[in-house]
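Protocol step 4 of 5: obtain the predicted structure for the target chain.
Materials: sequence only (see below). No template structures provided, no constraints applied. The aim of this step is simply to have a reference model before the mutagenesis design in step 5. Sequence pasted as it appears in the construct record:
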Amino acid sequence: MTTADAIVLIAYLAGMLALGIFYMRRNTSLKQMFAAGHQSPWWVAGLSGFMTMFSAGTFVVWGGLAYRSGLVAVAVNMSYGVAALLAGAFLAARWRRLGVDSPADYVRLRFGQSAVQLYLWVMMLFRLIGSGIALYALSVLLCVLVPLDPGHMLRDPDTGNLSVTFAVIGFGAVIVLYTMLGGLWAVLMTDVMQFIVLNLAVLITVILILMRIGGLEGFVERAPQGFFALTSDDYGWWFIAAWTVIHFFMIGAEWAFVQRFISVPTPADARRSAWLFGGLYLISPAFWLLPPMLYRAIDPNADPEQAYMLAAQAVLPAGMLGLVLAAMFSATASLISGQLNVFAGALTPMLTRGRDGIAEVRTGRLVTIGLGAFLTLVAAMIPLLGGAEKVIVAATSLLVVPLVAPSVWGFFSNRVDQRSAWLTVIAAGTVGLFLRYLITPSGPLGAVAGLRPLQSWAAEAGILIDVIVGVAVPMLVLGGYHLFSRRIAPGVARIAALPPAPETVPGGGASDAPRIVALTVGASGFLLWMSAITASAEDRMVLLITGAALAALALFAEWIGRRGARAVEQAEALT
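Step 4 output (structure tokens):
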């Protein structure tokens, strides 16, 4: 990584902190801090939800699969798009129509306080640990590119590079600070900025790689056999279908995504935000997974997990690699900031009963700092856990749908209640523990002869066990509870007693969104022009033309922003 790359990355981090400070003044109540005052434009919420699916692991895991197997990775990731479209059709508007300020409020009303405690502590623990793992993965990616001289205070003596611990602390501090200061507005708008940076970095990388290998024709000629098949032995259509179902529940009911549906002015806006999210994920995987796929034509023997970064290093001029690192940071920051904000939003009301708005916001910031410190500590301790993160990730995949499925059923069934929520989690956890750990050859029941057929099936099933536990068990428990329960759940009356959700109009931080887009796009165009100075003659023309297009787009976004600001001023004058 050159000095220019480091300057670009540092400038990007500074920009995110500046956004947090800018939106700090908006947070005068918990509704503003954790629900954006229900004033977020639908396209901002949609882009934010889209970015929440990303992390540094996305580039390692799915980038590695794209390098090895080609379009299979695209097909798997398109399942997120189908899931988001379905969530938009059936769930997004229902969340906004409730009129609650957080998904925890809905769970409390519909299923009771004990269900809130179950969902909050179990999901928060696993999600924060998962976020810590993502932060660690990001830091490892960066540190590989930053060699330091002997004696440097930030140098790891074992690797000769930047210390992963220092990188974890630095990145974690930036994410926690802008989330703590700016609340959900900062989370939403940094996600929009991250969307722009990610796609720009991928666009330039794709164009320059295609120029190196002779365009798409050269790529097709060099691709291995079966590279353009949509499925493989490990990722067949049944897996993709089950993956879609799992993510329908995740996108439709996991708190970080629900928060986006709640933040918009109207139920129709919530539906549009989910459809934007889904539409982007139907078309974008074929774009942002291209760099590792194309790099296969340059080096067929590379480490798949490093293929994304190697592709960027192979073609990008000075400064542009910093943009790719910024994009990877963006993806991880979006995941982490969303989790911090939603769980701080659930915890803060428990600690601030009877206080005024400013005191609530102050407590909310302290809670955000505490949660951020916890996940940063987890990230710093990953090397000491000896691989325990694999167990944590597996447990998360088994628990997500069992935790959120009762919330979805609660919209359509008036019989599922607090007991059904607990039964779902207990049943899924028991079956998952039995199939994945107890009957394995090294498990406590591995030597039981009568379990050998089941043990063999579980070994062959692999990820199918996650599907059975994560989807089939919750559906059977909730379906059976609905059929055999003879009483209406008490939470149904509490939900029905809620006053009609007031529709708001985009305002407050919403009027700033186009201008932030303009600033981000304009700064990116300027970076391309600066990078063109050191680029080859062939690459220089691409960078100059793309930079000019971004400058024009920035001017258009600024014009839109000025029109929106005038409209908001006129509306406020009339009221």
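Step 4 remarks: The two ends are 54 Å apart (CA to CA). Confidence is low (pLDDT under 50) at residues 386-393.
Proceed to step 5.
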